[in-house]
Structure formats: C-alpha cells, structure tokens
Design a protein that fits this description.
Blueprint (H helix, E strand, L loop, with lengths): L3 E2 L2 H21 L5 E7 L3 H17 L2 E7 L5 H13 L5 E4 L9 H7 L11 H8 L8 H12 L8 E5 L6 H10 L3 E5 L6 H5 L4 E4 L17 E4 L3 E2 L5 E2 L4 H4 L5 E2 L6 H26 L2
Parallel strand pairs: 1-11, 2-3, 2-4, 5-6, 5-7, 7-8, 8-11
Antiparallel strand pairs: 9-10
The structure holds NADPH dihydro-nicotinamide-adenine-dinucleotide phosphate.
C-alpha cells in the first residue's frame, strides 16, 4: 500500500481563500480583525515564524501589528505591553512568540493575555474550556491536525489514536481534542517503554516529539493514518519530521509530509482563531448596541 499524502499546504491555502470572504464580511460590518504578535529577541526560527504569520494575515486581510522587544526586556515590561494590547480595541488576538528568554516566565506571559484574545489557545481558561467541552480557542497545531483529518474524511470516533509527546502546546491538547471527538486515546512520552508496543496499535498515530527517525515502518500498523508534527533539521540541514516518511508511506493509509503537512495548518488555524475572536467582539458589540 502507498499512503495518500495529506497535503496541508493545499488544505491551508483553500482555507485562507475561504477566510478572505469571511474577513471581508466582517469588515463590511465595521470590524477589521486584528492580531498583535510580540517577538522577543532575535531567534532566527522565531523571526521566520513571525514573518510567516504576518504574511498570512496580510493575504486574508487581517490587520497585524508586530511588537519587537530586545531579549534583555524584563518580565514586567513584557507583561505591561500585553496588558496594553488587552485593552486595545483594534486588536482581537495576541500572540507572544515562544520560546522566551530565561528571565521571563512563559506561564506568567500566557496567563496575562486576556482569555478573549488568547488566539494561541494556551491560556488555562482556554484549556479548561476545552477540557470541559465548551467553546474555546483551540491551540493551533492540534486544531490544524483535526482540520486536515476532516478534509480527507478520516473518521475519528471509535478509533484508537496514539499521541506521542505530551507538551502543553501539542501533545496534551491534541489528546484532549481527539478524546472530545470520541476517539480512544493513548498518550506516550519519553518514559513510555517500549514505545513501539503502543504506536503499533494506532489507527491514527500523531507524533510530536522533535526527533528525526523516531518512527519507522516497523512501528506502525498496516493502514494507519500517520500525522507527523515533528520539525527537525537533518545532517544536510533539510527540514524533516519525526517519521521516516519514505518507508512509512508504503505501509500507512494516509500520511502528512514535512514540510507541507502540519506546519501550514498550524499557521492557518491562527488566522481562524483571530477571526473567531473578532467575530465574538462583533457579536457582543451588536448585542449591546
Ligand atoms: P516538547 O519538547 O515540548 O515535547 C516533546 C515531547 O516528546 C515530550 O512530551 C517528551 O516526553 C516526548 N519525547 C521525547 N523523546 C521521546 C521519545 N524518545 N519517545 C517518546 N516521546 C518522547 O516539544 P513540542 O511538543 O513543542 O514539539 C514537538 C515537535 O513538534 C518539535 O519537533 C517541534 O518543532 C514540532 N512542532 C511543530 C509544529 C508545527 O506546526 N508543525 C508546531 C509545534 C511544534 P517528556 O514529556 O517525557 O519529556
């Protein structure tokens, strides 16, 4: 069997196209969705992600504001900037690009962002709402994974989903989201032994670790759906995932490539969350006019 490739780049491009119309509709009602991005320091990967996010905003008509701060910024100064953006009427979503310098607590930063503007979905309020199956901002990578599975009509309910990785931004929220969609979920991490015993049972395998070559063909069940979140540079400097793509695609039914899989979906879900935040404000405004 050769797997069908899930083309995240194409699915994301189609979603951006649809979003243009939705943004235009909102604008016709007097609301221009606005996203503020805070970038601390000069980390090249972070700079490139932020550039991409701003380009995406421009493409769909979302207003974006970039705030660049030096890596010597104090935690108090950064929190003050966030508080100002919490109050800004033209900003509906706030994103602080991670990682942050050592002197700054990521959790404090995340918790200072107003839950109404938490378009990354990392605030405990968003995560708690997701946990209790209430409407919430869903972290972009897990949300993007669900969207791509929906786009290729992969059913989730009743399936065994194995998630490798338990970070707060990918593994844990992805597991919760699959559970909310009625999957039976197994979460694996660095202390799971032997890992293959679990991955081989997966109908849908999500790998979010950050280790090239972690999952080979011998680690999956024939016909599994394989979602590769990992982003690693190989010895030639090429971007690769956590999954041995060439061999795994011969055994899987669906597989995501790296690059061009989960990455573009993550980016597009940020736009979707920003649009959602702006719509909520618009609804509130209309209700209280
Ligand atoms: P973290 O480093 O926060 O988490 C990695 C997880 O992998 C941890 O839970 C860790 O376990 C687990 N792990 C480490 N080694 C093993 C192992 N040998 N076997 C099983 N589990 C292991 O990473 P992130 O979740 O932030 O990111 C994961 C990967 O996804 C990275 O490559 C990152 O670049 C990429 N990424 C891609 C995105 C995209 O849009 N495509 C978005 C976000 C991330 P433990 O908890 O026990 O330490």
């Amino acid at each position: 069997m050769t797997a069908q490739m899930i083309d995240g780049k194409a699915i994301a491009a189609a979603k951006r196209q649809e979003m243009k119309t939705m943004v235009a509709e909102l604008k016709s009602e007097g609301v221009v969705p606005g996203l503020a991005v805070i970038l601390v320091g000069e980390n090249p990967a972070s700079m490139s992600y932020v550039k991409g996010k701003i380009r995406d905003c421009k493409e769909v008509g979302i207003y974006s504001r970039l705030l660049r701060l030096p890596d010597t910024v104090t935690e108090a100064e950064l929190l003050d900037e966030i508080k100002k953006l919490n109050e800004a009427d033209d900003i509906h979503g706030i994103l602080v690009q991670l990682p942050l310098p050592e002197q700054i607590s990521e959790q404090k930063v995340i918790q200072t962002i107003s839950p109404e503007k938490d378009v990354d979905g990392f605030h405990p309020t968003s995560l708690g709402r997701m946990m209790t199956k209430q409407d919430s901002f869903v972290p972009c990578t897990p949300a993007g994974i669900m969207e791509m599975l929906k786009a290729v009509h992969v059913p989730i309910a009743g399936k065994h989903v194995v998630v490798v990785g338990r970070s707060n931004i990918v593994g844990k929220p992805a597991s919760l989201l699959f559970l909310n969609h009625n999957a039976t979920v197994t979460i694996c991490h660095s202390k799971t032994t032997p890992l293959a015993q679990y991955t081989k049972q997966a109908d849908v395998l999500v790998v979010a670790v950050g280790r090239a070559g972690l999952i080979g063909a011998e680690d999956i069940k024939p016909g599994a759906v394989v979602i590769d979140v990992g982003m690693n540079r190989n010895e030639k400097g090429k971007l690769v995932g956590d999954v041995e793509f060439d061999e795994v695609k011969e055994k899987a039914s669906f597989i995501t490539p790296v690059p061009g899989g989960v990455g573009p979906m993550t980016r597009v879900m940020l736009l979707e969350n920003t649009l959602k935040a702006a719509r909520k404000i618009n609804q509130y405004r209309k209700a209280h006019a």
